[in-house]
Amino acid sequence: MLWKTVLLLALVSQVLVLENGLLRTPPMGWLAWERFRCNVNCDEDPKNCISERLFMEMADRLAQDGWRDLGYTYLNIDDCWIGGRDDNGHLVPDAKRFPNGIAFLADYAHSLGLKLGIYEDVGNFTCMGYPGTTLDKVTQDAQTFAQWKVDMLKLDGCFSTPEERAKGYPMMAAALNATGRPIAFSCSWPAYEGGLPPKVNYSLLIDTCNLWRNYDDIQDSWRSVLSILDWFVDHQDILQPVAGPGHWNDPDMLLIGNFGLSFEQARAQMALWTVLAAPLFMSTDLRTMSAQNMDILQNPLMIKINQDPLGIQGRRILKEKSYIEVYMRPLAGYSYALVFFSRRTDMPYHYRTSLTQLNFTGSGLHEAQNVYTGDVISGLRTETNFTVVINPSGVVMWYLYPVRKLGSPQQ
Ligand SMILES: *[C@@H]1O[C@H](CO)[C@@H](O)[C@H](O)[C@H]1NC(C)=O
Ligand SMILES: *[C@@H]1O[C@H](CO)[C@@H](O)[C@H](O)[C@H]1NC(C)=O
Ligand SMILES: *[C@@H]1O[C@H](CO)[C@@H](O)[C@H](O)[C@H]1NC(C)=O
Ligand SMILES: *[C@@H]1O[C@H](CO)[C@@H](O)[C@H](O)[C@H]1NC(C)=O
Ligand SMILES: *[C@@H]1O[C@H](CO)[C@@H](O)[C@H](O)[C@H]1NC(C)=O
């Protein structure tokens, strides 16, 4: 009897393994929440309210302004789209704000080479009080999303118990799989359990979700960026090993283009999120973005590093008394991303170090490209001393790669 149960459990856990083949690199795109929240007042604010129009206009920008071609392909709806349930219990969008329905929006996104993401909540209500996906509705809602040709689901955790979440997230993973449609699955589950073991089982999350929110919602301020960064770094021994192709930690959206970050801080968030192998979800008004912010978000070398095929999350490797920190992410081709980050608030800091001091070994020659300026620093041996000048609350970011010895055979 016991053996039968054990066998059955083994089979069940086999079935739950998430092998949807999606998100081999961190997802990139646009997500409505941080910038547009639950603005449902289309009478007074028709350009910015959560509506079909907003998503279509963002889709146009993603397709026309270079975003899509750089990899920013997800157009993701967050809370406040739901109108209710019909007589058969099917979810329906708000009829006034989404008059053509979600399938129409998905078709529109697909016609532009984009993907559509949607939002629900595993509890009685969404965080803003719209109808949730209670356990009895999981299968039906998964089928609805698949029927609409949705490509990603963010499943929030408001108004649910820990037991409901423990049942609901794996149940939704299985229900999405059963639809036969590849739908990337973003789980807010760990954020509701404090983000850490023993309450959070990261092996189980890897088997259940493609990405997960570990910690608090980001707000439009540098303080919020720092609080999230601090939490991720404090727990990097737990979090760093669990990220990889198909399963990512999500420190939440990029604020770049909004109101809370200075130029240096915007560059810093982009660089730090990139070394953390974080999803790059912009949440900003793409219709009014400055050229300066666009340069930060559309930096090809930055994106190449974020999307590195090895999918290894970086770590903070050094915290100096001078309030300089060094972050490192290993990349394909024996390359690395290095981020020199200043938490100072006085003036540009001349930070002197060497690869040896950063624990690089070997006698090989390296070259580095400054990711933001494009400058190339050549002739770097491990013992070479160099200086980077880091602005307050800013970064210097390097792409560091080995240089082939002259005359040695090409790989
Ligand atoms: C469902 O899961 C199986 C393996 O468990 C996988 O082979 C298949 O591709 C998945 N299908 C979808 C649509 O995610
Ligand atoms: C969800 O609703 C049910 C039925 O009204 C109620 O019993 C339960 O306490 C609610 N759960 C939460 C977490 O609010
Ligand atoms: C975590 O979940 C995995 C299944 O994915 C399971 O094998 C393991 O026993 C769980 N660990 C704990 C501590 O519960
Ligand atoms: C370098 O290695 C030493 C010894 O293992 C360790 O104490 C130090 O923290 C490391 N420094 C960096 C920057 O990784
Ligand atoms: C680099 O600087 C250190 C002192 O910080 C010094 O001991 C070392 O000799 C210098 N190395 C080179 C190659 O100049």
UniProtKB/TrEMBL annotation:
Keywords: Disulfide bond, Glycoprotein, Glycosidase, Hydrolase, Lipid metabolism, Lysosome, Signal
Signal sequence coordinates: 1-17
GO molecular function: alpha-galactosidase activity; alpha-N-acetylgalactosaminidase activity
GO biological processes: glycolipid catabolic process; glycoside catabolic process; oligosaccharide metabolic process
Transmembrane parts of this sequence: none
Annotated GO CC locations: lysosome; membrane
Subunit relationships: Homodimer.
Purpose of the protein: Removes terminal alpha-N-acetylgalactosamine residues from glycolipids and glycopeptides. Required for the breakdown of glycolipids.
Protein name: Alpha-galactosidase
Organism: Pteropus vampyrus (Large flying fox)
Gene: NAGA
